[in-house]
């Protein structure tokens, strides 16, 4: 019997509201504290707080000339990808670029560019629209800029499955390796959605927490008092390789992507299937793809948005498949919801949980919802974890699930 295909994770990179760099971001998340804070750019909106990447300097990332030629989402992607490639011990000048692919997941693309250029046209006329608008706004340009940055001439793909985008990108990248289309794929997710239009739209849908008096306690996945998510920005990137390629160059393997499942609820544009039908299908597909039994999964990094309906449906779906066995947490309590980047960032946190033998907690889990029957982790928990699962679900009923192993 042929064993399941595993993609080796040889490099990781994080640019999150918890910090720039893997160690800084991981160590903060382990504290179980939120970074949410008042946001001056949202001061006139119904929700005026967010989770932004602290100290992110575009000029330091791409230089003064390019910093005004790229949208923030592209620069977040580049910063995280550079970390991942360096962590993998790869030198881009030395690799065979034709065998290197890029897959980036994003929900919004260059949203800040779209908003600013629309304002310029409305206020000053069409002649004031920048000639760089489309290269900065188009949803595929984060992947395009990464290919230019890395000299990656293999498959260059952008996937957009709303808040499942980052996880979908890693799953697609794993499948590219399995197909033989590439030896190395840089993959992950990025979004820079803390913009007035995006926040106003989410607020109008009643999707955001309105805990304005105390933003740090606003994101509280699985808590009985949850009232919505906190919007955030960020990027997470991984270097995936075939095991043969990683072994041949003596690479350090930080973890493996062994299973991937995707599905559609085919139910509603924003609400999850009330019985979690699509989520369950994606979870069971990922388990089967990795030849993993439900009882083998020791940790689940839940989608856990802190919205009433999503948390309840996800919890009941997990309980139906796994019982109360695995430890479950949501790192969105600490860093908010990074939208299309979330699935990649959370997959990386799952790899780190396996690597370091500690499950990150759910921040602000003060009063666990009594209707949720899961082993919810409220403080860091050590253990010899070998298999983890990361769930990601998005608007349009998009579901993506990754199974990861040490």
């Amino acid at each position: 019997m042929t064993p399941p295909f595993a993609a080796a994770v040889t490099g990781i990179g994080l640019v999150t509201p918890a910090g720039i760099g893997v160690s800084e971001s991981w160590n903060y998340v382990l504290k179980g504290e939120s970074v949410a804070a008042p946001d001056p750019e949202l001061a006139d909106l119904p929700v005026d707080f967010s989770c932004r990447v602290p100290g992110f300097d575009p000029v330091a990332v791409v230089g003064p000339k390019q910093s005004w030629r790229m949208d923030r989402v592209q620069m977040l992607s580049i910063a995280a990808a550079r970390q991942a490639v360096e962590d993998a011990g790869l030198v881009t000048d030395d690799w065979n670029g034709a065998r290197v692919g890029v897959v980036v997941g994003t929900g919004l693309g260059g949203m800040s560019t779209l908003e600013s250029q629309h304002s310029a046209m409305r206020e000053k006329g069409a002649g004031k629209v920048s000639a760089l608008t489309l290269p900065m706004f188009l949803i595929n340009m984060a992947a395009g800029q990464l290919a230019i940055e890395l000299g990656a001439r293999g498959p260059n793909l952008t996937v957009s499955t709303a808040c499942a985008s980052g996880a979908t990108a890693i799953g697609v990248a794993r499948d590219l390796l399995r197909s033989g289309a590439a030896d190395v794929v840089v993959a992950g997710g990025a979004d820079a959605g803390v913009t007035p239009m995006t926040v106003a739209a989410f607020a109008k849908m009643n999707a955001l927490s309105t805990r304005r008096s105390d933003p740090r306690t606003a994101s509280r996945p699985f808590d009985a008092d949850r009232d919505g998510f906190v919007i955030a920005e960020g990027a997470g990137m991984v270097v995936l390789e075939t095991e043969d390629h990683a072994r041949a160059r003596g690479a350090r393997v930080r973890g493996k992507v062994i299973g991937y499942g995707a599905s559609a609820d085919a139910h509603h544009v924003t609400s999850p299937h009330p019985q979690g039908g699509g989520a369950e299908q994606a979870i069971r597909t990922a388990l089967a793809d990795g030849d993993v039994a439900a009882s083998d999964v020791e940790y689940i990094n839940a989608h856990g948005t802190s919205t009433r309906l999503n948390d309840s449906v996800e919890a009941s779906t997990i309980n139906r498949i796994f019982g109360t066995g695995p430890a479950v947490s949501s790192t969105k309590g600490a860093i908010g919801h990074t939208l299309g980047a979330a699935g990649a960032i959370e997959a990386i946190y799952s790899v780190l949980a396996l690597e370091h033998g500690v499950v990150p907690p759910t921040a602000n889990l003060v009063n666990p919802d009594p209707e949720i029957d899961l082993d919810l982790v409220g403080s860091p928990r050590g253990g010899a974890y070998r298999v983890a699962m990361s769930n990601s679900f998005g608007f349009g009923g998009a579901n993506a699930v990754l199974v990861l192993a040490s």
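The longest strand covers residues 7-16. The two ends are 22 Å apart (CA to CA).
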